[in-house]
Amino acid sequence: MNADDEDPTARAAEDAPSSTTGPPPPAPPEPLPDDEAQRVYLRFRRVFGDPNGRSRDGRRRKAIKLGSPSQPFGTGREPRGIADVLASVTSELGWKSPLAQSDLMAAWPDMVGDELSAHSHPVSIDDGTLTVQCDSTAWATQLRLMRGTVTTTIVQRYPDAGIQSVRFLAPNAPSWKRGPRSVPGRGPRDTYG
Length: 193
Fold this sequence. Notes:
It is a single chain. This protein has helices at residues 8-15, 36-48, 56-66, 82-93, 96-106, 108-112, 114-118, 137-145, 147-157; strands spanning 120-126, 129-134, 165-169. Strands 1-2-3 form a 3-stranded mixed sheet. It is mainly α. It contains 9 helices and 3 strands.
């Protein structure tokens, strides 16, 4: 018996709305396509899954669908300012220390004051040691006496810079190691004394 031989009254009873409030009847299965290629494609899709789910973006979408439903103002979805975004990116990529060190170098006049910054400038940061070049030996000595205060200020303002000590250098003294009049050996010993 095929579909054309059915009783018309039975078909009308099925099509009439039911008076009970139950779940709607399940949708009839999708008819098979007439084309052989479409049938093969649909069978492979059932067996192997959706090809869109095999790409990276497809897997991400599938993971989102399997997880909790996306909510417009849920965790991780709230709008953030550009400063918060940049802070999270710099910490994620490990740029906090170099950025804090460059901020420290730029803010040297604000930390030590106008007078001291006029006679000294930071040169480098190596292994947690800030090296500061001074104009004269007197200014280097003055800053060496203030080393504790300067180091404390740096650690309080720029904790991510990783500064553990500060080294103050006086102007370079002449060297007899190189040049036209250098001689091999230990060099001058009691010339100045």
